[in-house]
Amino acid sequence: MERSKFHVKKGDTVKVLAGKEKGKTGKILKVNHKKDTVIVEKINFIKRHARPGGKTRQGGIIEREGPLNVTNVNIVCPRCNDAVRIKKIVLEDKNTARACTACGEILDR
Ligand SMILES: [Zn+2]
Questions:
Q1: CB distance 106 to 89 below 8 Å
Q2: Which pLDDT score is estimated for 55?
Q3: What is the pLDDT of residues 51-80, one digit of tens each?
Q4: Residue 12 C-alpha to ligand 1 middle, in angstroms?
Q5: Which residues of 39-71 are buried (b: 16+ CB within 10 A; e: fewer)?
Q6: 106 part of a folded domain
Q7: Cα 103 to ligand 1 centre (Å)
Q8: Ligand 1 center–CA 33 separation, angstroms
């Protein structure tokens, strides 16, 4: 299992807790441990000027997901259907997994 200092990781469904996208949910596409940010699918679109050359010869403005601070997102429990606190539990095979503190649902499968 990939080690992470974050409470969330790539592939998690998360809810945005602060900022202009507050309340929206999406899947984490990318985690940046150096900058403490995550990229969440279809959240926080920002306009960027594409550089001419390379793959996009035309250049111009493109829209793509911008980074969110990792502290502003929280994992969504599929059973509670909301952002929840997580706890670490030890499974029968001695691996640790993240579980919902509210309902006990294991969030690492
Ligand atoms: Zn739950």
A1: yes
A2: 64
A3: 776 665 677 888 999 999 999 999 999 999
A4: 14
A5: bbeebbeeeeeeeeeeeeeeeeeeeebebbebe
A6: no
A7: 4
A8: 26
User: How many helices and strands in the chain, by DSSP H and E?
Assistant: 0, 10
Centre of ligand 1 to C-alpha 66, Å, is: 28
- pLDDT in the model for residue 1: 46
Give which of 75, 43, 48 is closest to 62, Cα–Cα. 48
Distance from residue 72's CA to the centre of ligand 1 (Å): 19
Residue-range definition of the domain harbouring residue 87: 13-52+60-100
Partners of 65 in beta bridges: 45
Greater confidence (43 vs 58) lies with: 43
pLDDT, the chain, mean? 90
Q: d(Cα 48, Cα 51) in Å, to the nearest integer?
A: 9
| Structural domains of the chain, count | 1
What's the CA-to-centroid distance between 106 and ligand 1, angstroms?
A: 8
CATH number at 29 reads 2.30.30.30
Q: Distance, CA 5 to ligand 1 centroid (Å)?
A: 22
